[in-house]
Amino acid sequence: MRKVMDCREYPSEMNCTLAISGEEEEVVAAAAQHAAAVHGHEDTPELRSSLRGMLKDEAPQHA
């Protein structure tokens, strides 16, 4: 199942609206890069573990 990470669910001073979806490892890697580049976090194993815990299942898309 695809996973989703949505910055809107974690308010910040910059009111970030980025949402990332994909396979779990893809989302964790992209979210870690985003957290470092945009939010000033250090990309560490601890950050990635924390991000992994915040992932949600993507809602199924119906045609």
Instruction: Give the uncertain stretches in residue-range form.
Output: none
Q: Taking strands numbered 1, 2, ... along the chain, how are they ordered across the largest sheet?
A: 2-1-3
> What does the average pLDDT come to?
93
Number of domains: 1
**What composes the largest sheet?**
3 strands, antiparallel
Our estimate of the beta-strand percent is 15-25%
Helix/strand/pairing category: alpha+beta
Fraction of residues in helix: 40-55%
Number of strands: 3
Shape descriptor? globular
Protein name: DUF1059 domain-containing protein
Organism: Streptomyces amritsarensis
Biased composition (Basic and acidic residues): 54-63
Region (Disordered): 37-63
Outline the structure in words.
It is a single chain. With 63 residues, the protein is an alpha+beta fold. It has one domain. It has two helices and three strands. It has a three-stranded antiparallel sheet with strand order 2-1-3, with helices on one face. The two termini are 17 Å apart. This is DUF1059 domain-containing protein. It comes from Streptomyces amritsarensis.
Question: Which key features would you list for this structure?
Answer:
63 residues, 3-stranded antiparallel sheet, 41% helix, 16% strand, globular
Summarize this, please?
Residues 54-63 have a biased composition (Basic and acidic residues). By secondary structure, the chain is an alpha+beta fold.
Secondary structure elements and pairings:
Layout: E1 3-6, E2 19-22, H1 24-39, H2 45-54, E3 56-57
Helix pairs in contact: 1-2
